[in-house]
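In response to reviewer comment 3 from the previous cycle, which asked for concrete evidence that the modeling workflow produces usable outputs, we include below a single protein chain processed end to end. The sequence was submitted unchanged, and the resulting structure tokens are shown without manual editing.
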Amino acid sequence: MNLRSRKRINQECIHTFVAQYFNEIVSALEATDGHSKLPREAFIPYTGAIIPAEGIVLQRDVIPAVKRAGYVQLRHMVGKQLGLTAWYLKSTGDDSTTVQFASGHDTSSATFKGLANVIGIGAKYTMGQSSLSIDYGQNRTDYGRFMNGSTQYNYVPGSINFIPTGRAMGNTPSFWVVRFDIGHVDLRTSE
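The workflow returned the following structure tokens.
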């Protein structure tokens, strides 16, 4: 065996020894974290705590903004004190949205066209310098009914396990407002 081949064998032994040494260090570090593949505990102040779990991620629903809409309002005075209002608002353009929801151990989705199709009525009664107004309206879209619905699931009483089976449509969402105003409007502008 010549000097050159001995040198090569020694280098291979050193490389193998160094590789084994670092593999043992990695194994020891992984054992301290329960063989987790997640970031080390020392990084938590910088990355946040990551907790591995199986299950469903709950998220807050976000209602998208209506980008374009048409609006029509009719007003009529009945006598000097009572005013009646009817109005209609409909979103226009490409206003479709997709919503994801839990269904079993999978994620399902539904796409809706039309975010707003709102009808409303109102009345305002004036008494001197004060007034009382009442408004009522409904969003008559499938998207509104979906967001007003609820998650359906199978649940065994006495256990902690439940399996989402989908989403049920709700009723037509509605709203109402009662307002009492005192005083008068100052329409003068300061110059």
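The chain has a mean pLDDT of 82. We consider this sufficient to address the reviewer's concern, and the full set will be provided in the supplementary archive.
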